[in-house]
Amino acid sequence: MNTSGIHHLFIMKILNLYAGIGGNRKLWGSEHKITAVEINPDIAKIYCDFFPKDEMIIDDAHNFLLKNFKSYDFIWSSPPCPSHSDIRRCGVHRGQNEAIYPDMALYQEIILLKNFAPKECKWIVENVKPYYEPLIKGKLMHRHLFWTNFDMIEFIEDGERKHNDINGSKIVYGFDLKNYTGVDKCKLLRNCVDPELGLHILKESQTKTTLF
User: What is the CATH number of the domain that holds 64?
Assistant: First the structure.
């Protein structure tokens, strides 16, 4: 067992779905074997620039999970959140957006993992706090809702997230995107999970037993 670092209790095979540019993954280190899945090749390239040792698969994360969920020690999934966000509902009421169905892929993944993931596999599904009562109860933490098969102690945020500073020329959580083109840099940075939170959850997964 590796005890050289508090967040490297043992080396794991990790699946990072809907990887984006890797906010949640940023502080996981380089000892774990990490597979990232991102459908957008331009975004995948940015991820690979930041994490060149990770295996990157350009594919639909939802389908990849169904085919491969039995192959990992830890799974992190962050399905797209716009259809669940209160921002969209407010936009609809203001006449700025069209109403759309909530994307049920979120709940499909929770149900799949809860019922079929191997007991030794720790998993987490992350999304925004939805504008409706969640169909499956999750844990609210740091403005996110989490569904897991292990308990997590509360995360205490250190410092402020400066959304107002996000643009193509700013650095957020250590991600500097000013030299990239062809992507919505503001959206990518806003979608980043706080790396400290990502590390906190990974550490919790390594020290807690599964709930079911």
Answer: 3.40.50.150
